[in-house]
Amino acid sequence: MSLPSKIYVAGHRGMVGSAIVRQLLAQGHPADRIVTRTHAELDLTNQAAVRAFFATERPGQVYLAAAKVGGIHANNTYPAEFIYSNLMVEANVIDAAFRNGVQKLLFLGSSCIYPKLAEQPMREDALLTGTLEPTNEPYAVAKIAGLKLCESYNRQYGNSHGVDYRSVMPTNLYGPGDNYHPENSHVIPALIRRFHEAKVNNSSTVTIWGTGMSKREFLYVDDMAAASVYVMNLGKAIYDQQTRPMLSHINVGYGRDITIGELAEIIARVTGYAGDITFDPSKPDGSPRKLMDSSRLNALGWQAQMGLDAGLEEAYKDFLNNHMAQP
Ligand SMILES: NC(=O)c1ccc[n+]([C@@H]2O[C@H](COP(=O)([O-])OP(=O)(O)OC[C@H]3O[C@@H](n4cnc5c(N)ncnc54)[C@H](OP(=O)(O)O)[C@@H]3O)[C@@H](O)[C@H]2O)c1
To answer: Whole-angstrom Cα distance, residue 62 to residue 44?
Structure first.
């Protein structure tokens, strides 16, 4: 009997990579057939080290969930590091995978690849139709390069070597393993921390930046991991029905968006905060709406499973159990 494919999950300590490992284990993939390396063990910006790793381990499949990620402040302060690291990680991993016979690879991108003023909901073919959001443009350009690397290897080596590298573009994610840093976290972990602290300190009011009217979409990270494994394992003919050689990425969204005000109400309830919620309209709202069009993924047979209320309860449990020690 042949052994199950050896799967390399790059970035397995991150929020998405750890969820992909959980998903593979939950689907019965043997733990000893999942290959991982920490950043300290293998710096993916080091081409020689990455090539040596692939030559030794020879995985059959690769999930590329390693990336240098950060919020607006980090992206604005370290643009060189964001573009350089992400380009190097992608180029090294994708090329070393090809050189070592990997036929199946899934690249994780982000919704920031789409133009700042893309029509809502954002469809895959909005890619490269307009100017990017300037604050994270270097990061977004690197992510676009990642998906174009996958496409180019498919186009050049698909027939000759059976290369089938796919890309998924997640919406905003939340759930276990999120970053709850007080100054450098996304909206859900930031609100969980603030409402939790307001409850503990008996504060009577929590004030949220902006009008609370802008709308965002959120997907539970274990759903993202399930979608990743699903897309990786789809038959090629089925995947090809929803993609084109030069438009090969697939959006992964929850399918509905919610106002920040509604989100705050749910998080207040989940955390047990009973005080007032006020908004500060003098602060920026950001884009009025950011929603993925996930109809291609839905047509491929996948739909998010975790509702927002239940997902936020799980996220709050993870915060209480694993993140209270963070500053
Ligand atoms: N979180 C979201 O809301 C979201 C939304 C859309 C898309 N995504 C995408 O999903 C992917 C993963 O995001 P995430 O939220 O899981 O990020 P994360 O929690 O920061 O995880 C990224 C992982 O990559 C590792 N890594 C970074 N640079 C590396 C290098 N040079 N060598 C080896 N390992 C390296 C990091 O290790 P260290 O921490 O040790 O550096 C970390 O474990 C990214 O491509 C991101 O764009 C995330």
So the answer is: 13
